[in-house]
Design brief:
By secondary structure, the protein is an alpha+beta fold. Helix content is 36%, strand content 22%. The chain folds into 2 domains: 120 residues, no CATH class; 120 residues, Roll (Nuclear Transport Factor 2, Chain: A), CATH 3.10.450.50.
């Protein structure tokens, strides 16, 4: 009997360790997705797809092609090398997609091939300099947008799918999936609610609101603390969130949305 108890405890310990993903792998997945070289789940688990993406990146950067996260590859991606201590999130994240943007990128095969070629020819992430911040239109006051963001977060904590998808103007530029319609968003939100039935979001500071590129639009940036749970996993962390919103009738609507995990 003691032997059986020991084996049971050992199996429990192993299963507990297994649910925690590798933080450096997760970061590499994030960086290669930003470079259009990786399209799978961001879940911190090494897969053949990730290995292939690493080989393409290494070949273009002139790094020894191993398909592994060696020190040279980590340094090229501006990540800490494997030999250094990798800072973890607020708590170790499980080996499943945590954020809504962590799910595998949905693109057609033709789009994927085109994006991969683009990523292979230019494996660096280049960002255009941000234009000077301008005040948003009068109907996009920080106070109004702040209330809008808070209500979005409160509805996002519920199981009411309709209450969550009503904030978007379709087609919407949706995370890494490009422009999608209402059916896609409805399915995505439904899947996320099933994956993480308990969700808590805390706005850490009032949103920053500036004028959008187009008239009548505003750019919104805000940070949140998130805490999501299901019967097997729990995940906490922080994200930086970026929206483009515009006035439609009497309401504000999101026309573009993306998020980025904040690494601690």
């Amino acid at each position: 009997m003691p032997g059986k108890r020991f084996i049971a405890c050992l199996l429990l310990l192993l299963s507990t360790v297994a649910v925690h993903a590798d933080e450096q792998v997760r970061q590499v997945q994030e960086e290669l997705r930003r470079r259009n070289l990786y399209f799978g789940d961001i879940d911190g688990t090494a897969t053949p797809e990730l290995g292939n993406a690493l080989r393409r990146y290494q070949a273009r950067k002139g790094i020894e092609v191993t398909g592994a996260i060696d020190d040279a590859t980590a340094a090229s991606l501006d990540l800490r090398p494997r030999t250094a201590k990798v800072q973890r999130a607020v708590a170790p994240l499980p080996d499943v997609p945590v954020l809504r943007s962590d799910s595998a990128r949905v693109v057609s095969e033709q789009e994927r091939i085109a994006l991969e070629k683009q990523g292979e020819s230019n494996p660096e992430v280049t960002q255009s300099p941000a234009p000077p911040a301008e005040a948003p239109a009068q109907n996009m006051t920080p106070e109004r947008v702040g209330r809008y963001v808070e209500q979005y977060l409160r509805d996002s904590e519920t199981s009411d799918i309709g209450a969550q998808v009503k904030y978007f103007s379709y087609p919407v530029q949706y995370f890494d999936h490009g422009q999608v319609g209402a059916e896609f968003v409805n399915k995505d939100v439904t899947n996320y609610v099933k994956r993480w039935p308990e969700r808590n979001y805390t706005l850490t500071a009032p949103p920053n609101v500036t004028a959008g590129v187009l008239d009548g639009e505003a750019q919104v940036e805000f940070k949140i603390d998130f805490d999501v749970r299901n019967s097997k996993h729990a995940a906490k962390g922080r994200t930086d969130n970026f929206w483009t919103v515009r006035q439609e009738g009497d309401d504000l609507k999101i026309v573009a949305i993306r998020e980025q995990r904040i690494r601690d």
